[in-house]
Amino acid sequence: MSKIVFWQAGDNDGCSFYRCQEPARVLATMGHDTYSGRIMMPSLYEDADTIVAQRLSETGPSLVWAGLAEKGDHELVYELDDDLLSVPEHFGSVYEAYANPARRARILMAMDRADFITTTNEHLAQAVRDHLGQPNKDVRIIPNYVPERLVASRPPAMWEHGRPIVGWAGSGSHRQDFEQLVIPLRKLLRERRANVRIIGPDYTPRLRTAVVQGTLEERLDLTHVKWVDGVDDFVQALDFHIGLAPLVDSQFNRSKSDIKLKEYAARGIAAMAPEVGPYSTSSVPRAWVYPDKGPDQLRWQTWEDQLKWLIDYRAEREHVANEGLLWARENTIEKHAIEWEKALVS
């Protein structure tokens, strides 16, 4: 058995949860000696077989990494679940941080000195090779999975009045993605066809605009829930009937994983997603949203069309939700732990 150290060199958030904490946990159940944390001292890693550094980019950790590479006593793995070298300019301070030439150089150095790199999909794997200028760099793909404990026993129950909850949940980096939903959700609110719930940044002002028009605001079936810290609590807070996963087609988004669809599926939520990036190849059951390609196409479902279909046809909505839940039970990280073992254990 191997000793594997996961170094959470980036933020202690959902990325480290899915790519460090949970892999360390399931590998430990397979008999491996594992550690996952932000602290990195010789006493923690000196006898490690493999050291996995996630999103390493700061000066101090980079010096440690370079020293480890120079000694050659451990197998070094750079873990990356976002294309940090292609962060969009509209990300503001995050863009400024990763546009910094010194930081970019540290990321490239860390990836170059790693024995191999782990990531979530083939598009990001190719982006990594392109950034490095190394078409043969060893990049190993391990998808994200939700742990068994977060998979619901059944889809969320309907409210007594029968209107489903249409929801979106995510971080503040999805503002441009969320804009795809503004017009269709405003129409839903005007028609009172569903309840709308936003978890994370407060995008409700965008939905209230041009909706109230003289009515009392409290009549709107619209609620905002602040960001829920901790992935376990966050996933369990997803209590929608229809879960929206908008994604703008961009270099950065094409490198993301399909974990949002998997979180929705695990909670028994009928997911809606565009045929973009990681969603276009994901096997998670969901309702598709296609862009409007013009009258020459046979059938193109917009967000509005698909939302109305899921709301008006409860049986079809529940079928999508149940199919997703069944899929999630067979696709947990526990049942795919072997993918991490094959990638990290020689």
Summarize, please.
The protein has 346 residues and is of the alpha/beta class. The protein has 16 helices and twelve strands.
Explain what the structure shows:
It is a single chain. The protein is of the alpha/beta class and 346 residues long. The chain has 2 domains: 3-145 and 333-344, 3-Layer(aba) Sandwich (Rossmann fold); 148-329, Rossmann fold, CATH 3.40.50.2000. It is built from 16 helices and 12 strands. The protein has helices at 14-29, 42-45, 59-71, 93-99, 101-113, 122-132, 175-178, 182-191, 204-208, 231-236, 251-254, 259-266, 277-281, 303-312, 314-329, 337-344; strands at residues 3-7, 33-37, 50-54, 75-79, 116-119, 139-141, 165-169, 195-199, 222-225, 242-244, 270-274, 287-289. The strands form 2 sheets. It has a 6-stranded parallel β-sheet, sandwiched between helices. Strands 9-8-7-10-11-12 form a 6-stranded parallel β-sheet, sandwiched between helices. The longest helix has 16 residues, at 14-29. Residues 295-299 have low confidence and may be disordered.
From the structure above, extract its key features.
Rossmann fold, six-stranded parallel β-sheet, alpha/beta, 346 residues, 12 strands, single chain, globular, 40% helix, 2 domains
CATH architecture group name of the largest domain: 3-Layer(aba) Sandwich
- What's the CATH first level of the largest domain? Alpha Beta
At the fold tier of CATH, the topology name of the largest domain is: Rossmann fold
Helix proportion of residues, in percent?
Answer: 40-55%
Using only CA atoms, what is the Rg? 22 Å
Low-confidence stretches are 295-299
pLDDT average, as an integer? 91
Output the number of helix runs: 16
Give, in order, the helices and strands.
EHEHEHEHHEHEEHHEHEHEHHEHEHHH
How many strands, which pairing sense, and closed or not: the largest β-sheet?
A: 6 strands, parallel
Record the strand order, biggest sheet. Answer: 2-1-3-4-5-6
Number of strands: 12
Distance between the termini: 10 Å
**Oligomeric state of the chains in view:** single chain
Shape: globular
Whole-number count of domains: 2
Structural class: alpha/beta
Looking at CATH, the homologous superfamily of the largest domain is Glycogen Phosphorylase B
What percent strand?
15-25%
